[in-house]
Write a structure and sequence with these properties.
It is a single chain. With about 140 residues, the protein is mostly beta strands. It has a single domain, classed as LCCL-like domain (Ferric Hydroxamate Uptake Protein, Chain A, domain 1). The protein has one helix at about 90-95; strands at about 10-15, 20, 30-35, 40-45, 65-70, 80, 80-85, 105-115, 115-120, 120-125, 125, 130, 135-140. The strands form four sheets. A seven-stranded mixed beta sheet has the order 3-4-5-8-13-7-6, with helices on one face. Strand 6 (about 80) and strand 7 form a beta hairpin. The radius of gyration is 14 Å and the shape is globular.
Length: about 140
């Protein structure tokens, strides 16, 4: 299956029979720190509308806060209610109805194992994409 993506961080994809990794879209400066509100186990840093959750893969049940900036530009999202961990967390937050592109805001996700498949749905002005089995997921709290 060929999958061409735009600004989707760290997604491995096949193109013309070759396997490649888009490293330039990875936000390698993302890390975690403590959440002073106590609502999350940690806070993602350097958050943009292209930030994802792959750095937390296999840390199931970890709760991570993302502070999404105002005036967002939507990025790629795979799934509905359960999202692939390389989806844009902020855009998925809009899709899930937690925040808006205009105002941004804090969303808290919980890291989950990968799913066998991810469904597509247009909701809140965002159309998510389908994807088969993936290695890691997240949901919103």
């Amino acid at each position: 299956m060929n999958r061409f993506i735009q600004a989707a961080p760290c997604r491995t994809f096949a193109a013309a029979g070759a396997l490649a990794i888009i490293l330039s879209a990875c936000n390698v400066n993302e890390s975690a720190s403590e959440d002073p509100t106590g609502a999350a186990d940690s806070v993602a840093t350097n958050v943009t509308w292209y930030s994802h959750a792959t750095q937390f893969r296999d840390k199931n049940n970890l709760r991570v806060a993302y502070d999404c900036p105002e005036n967002g530009t939507p990025a790629t999202v795979w799934g509905t209610d359960v999202y692939t961990d390389d989806s844009s967390v902020c855009t998925a937050g809009v899709h899930a109805g937690k925040i808006t592109l205009a105002k941004g805001g804090r969303v808290i996700i919980e890291i989950r194992p990968g799913e066998d498949s991810y469904d597509s749905l247009t909701r809140n002005g965002v159309t998510s994409r389908t994807w088969p089995q993936w290695l890691g997921s997240f949901v919103f709290l």
